[in-house]
């Protein structure tokens, strides 16, 4: 079965991108950023985006010039077969460990908020990834359609959170605006640029739209919207909780849904938001595991890569269970992964464009 058969449209690409990248507004990333940037952490997504987005645009430009190639084929065409496959393998490892560490993060979040403390992490992990596996087996067309029809409900719930939180904002809490200092903000902005790495993973689906212009239009529009959403929510977190609280709150979005109120007669409204957050989480990892397997299939020329979804899903669970606790997973492993990936995604497109593609004369 050919997976990249060109059925997606602009709206599906927008929906996939908004869910895959935009859900960072509701995970533990704010707490991770606040560790060093303090109350200036809400500026980091802007700086990270400024660092990484030009590199992303260069990759889109190269894909347009090599119009019949996907991401892995592009790297092989520019650098040669074996170097291209090596870079592709590194990209696969980044995608795989992003899926693994992020999924463990979400499992810890689900367990802490909605299950008794003694609940076995392994069982919750198997159930979660089991649902993700069956969703991914439906293929990219169904994933795109599901993302699109779910997007309105997910974003409506997020908008409601924003509206209900506005009355509790204390703007003075953003000062000093650069938190622990401008050098720290700039440094963290560069080191955490890979918080938008999923944009590069999505490039494997460059030929999955009816026309490549649909893919480019959809992913650029969604990227800008995603930046606005993440920055807005991070600003809300710092304005309501202050950095000392965000620094200690692992999951600020969930705390925010418990903090806000919808009148005097509606209690426990966080349950309503939980439903849509879980829906977004499932779709995020359905997309991630599918893209990761797709990248692997392209590296080794496995066009029918769908059977690989099961072993990769199992590996995600087994490796995801290795960190002893959520603190090691988040503050050591996930932060290290973000720091390692950032220079790769910032520099690689320039090397492909300047050092190889231009030097070979393919862009003349």
Automatic annotation (TrEMBL):
Transmembrane segments: 42-62, 82-99, 119-136, 148-169, 218-240, 274-296, 308-328, 340-359
GO-annotated biological processes: spore germination
Coiled-coil positions: none
Keywords: Germination, Membrane, Transmembrane, Transmembrane helix, Transport
Principal place of residence: membrane
InterPro entries cross-referenced by the UniProt entry: Spore_GerAB
Subcellular location: Membrane
Membrane topology: Multi-pass membrane protein
Keyword Ubl conjugation part of the UniProt annotation: no
Tagged with keyword Transport: yes
A cellular-component GO term for this protein: membrane
Similarity remark: Belongs to the amino acid-polyamine-organocation (APC) superfamily. Spore germination protein (SGP) (TC 2.A.3.9) family.
This protein's name: Spore germination protein GerKB
Source organism (scientific name): Gracilibacillus boraciitolerans JCM 21714
């Amino acid at each position: 079965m050919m997976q990249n058969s060109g059925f997606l449209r602009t709206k599906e690409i927008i929906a996939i991108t908004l869910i895959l990248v935009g859900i960072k507004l509701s995970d533990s990333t704010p707490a991770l950023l606040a560790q060093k940037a303090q109350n200036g952490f809400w500026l980091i997504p802007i700086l990270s985006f400024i660092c990484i987005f030009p590199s992303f645009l260069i990759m889109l430009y190269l894909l347009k010039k090599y119009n019949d190639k996907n991401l892995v084929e592009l790297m092989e065409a520019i650098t040669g077969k074996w170097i291209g496959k090596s870079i592709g393998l590194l990209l696969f490892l980044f995608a795989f460990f992003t899926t693994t560490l992020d999924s463990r993060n979400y499992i810890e979040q689900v367990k802490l908020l909605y299950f008794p403390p003694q609940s076995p992490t392994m069982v919750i992990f198997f159930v979660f990834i089991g649902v993700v596996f069956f969703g991914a087996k439906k293929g990219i067309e169904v994933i795109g359609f599901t993302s699109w029809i779910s997007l309105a409900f997910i974003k409506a719930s997020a908008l409601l959170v924003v509206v209900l939180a506005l009355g509790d904002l204390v703007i003075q809490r953003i000062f000093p605006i650069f938190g622990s200092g401008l050098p720290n903000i700039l440094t963290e902005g560069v080191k955490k640029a890979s918080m938008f790495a999923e944009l590069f993973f999505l490039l494997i689906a460059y030929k999955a739209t009816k026309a490549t212009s649909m893919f480019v239009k959809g992913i650029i529009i969604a990227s800008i919207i995603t930046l606005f959403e993440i920055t807005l929510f991070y600003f809300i977190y710092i304005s309501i909780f202050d950095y000392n609280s965000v620094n200690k709150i692992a999951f600020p979005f969930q705390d925010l849904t418990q903090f806000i109120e919808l009148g005097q007669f509606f209690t426990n409204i966080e349950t309503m938001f939980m439903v849509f957050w879980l829906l977004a989480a499932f779709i995020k990892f359905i997309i991630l595991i599918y893209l990761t397997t797709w990248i692997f299939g392209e590296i080794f020329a496995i066009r029918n890569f769908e059977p690989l979804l099961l072993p990769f899903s199992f590996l995600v669970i087994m490796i995801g269970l290795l960190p002893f606790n959520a603190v090691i997973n988040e503050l050591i492993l996930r932060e290290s992964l973000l720091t390692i990936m950032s220079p790769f995604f910032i520099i690689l497109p320039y090397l492909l464009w300047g050092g190889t593609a231009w030097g070979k004369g393919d862009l003349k």
